[in-house]
Amino acid sequence: EQIRIEPFMTQTLKRMEDLYPEFAFRMKAEGIGKVVRINPLHLEQMLLIVIENAVKYSAEHKEIDIRCYEEQKRVCISIQDYGIGIPTAEIQHVFDRFYRVDRARSREIEGTGLGLAIAKNLISLYQGDIEITSIENKGTRVTLTFPAVSS
Ligand code: ATP
Ligand code: MG
Fold first, then answer.
1. Which H or E run contains 45?
2. Alpha carbon distance, N-terminus to C-terminus of the chain
3. Near ion ligand 2, which residues have CB within 5 Å?
4. Which residues contact 26 (CB under 8 A, 6 or more apart)?
5. Whole-structure pTM over 0.90, yes or no?
6. In the structure, which protein residues have their CB atom closer than 6 angstroms to any atom of ligand 1?
7. Rounded to an integer, what distance in angstroms lies between the CA atom of residue 5 and that of residue 92?
8. pLDDT, tens digit (0-9, with 9 covering 90-100), for 12-53
9. What is the distance between the alpha carbons of residues 126 and 140, in angstroms, rounded to a whole number?
């Protein structure tokens, strides 16, 4: 199924604003002419996992920036938060099932450590990729990329 990213993201963000009214979601979509071929429920599930993390691990800075753009024939969606971040040495592990960074830190924040493992499995069905860059106490950016299809 083909999805046009911009309207899909606008709709998803409306739902996020309803779910998390204390957060400000900002979206920038830069000339997204291409579409992606993906089951919309799968894309929605991946976005929910990543945005829920951005919300959970944001601490007091309650803004989330979402960018959609094309790069080298790939459609990219990045989700940036300004929260507690992930130590560099831990980033490689967060896609492992049940892995959670620093038990003490995540004790107050509930979770099973499955979200990103599921997102990674889903995205691999579509030749997609999920990448994380993060700075501790500054924030985290998660970027999803998919092969672009000409509409
Ligand atoms: P679940 O999603 O299953 O409810 P979870 O959020 O702990 O639980 P994942 O979504 O797989 O599990 O994330 C794994 C770990 O990566 C988290 O426990 C957290 O330590 C870290 N993490 C993920 N996203 C972020 C983020 N945006 N900022 C800071 N840490 C993050
Ligand atoms: Mg999670």
1. helix 40-56
2. 12
3. 53, 115
4. 63, 64, 65, 66
5. yes
6. 53-54, 57, 81, 83-86, 94, 99-101, 106, 111-117, 140
7. 28
8. 999 999 999 999 999 999 878 778 999 999 999 999 999 999
9. 24
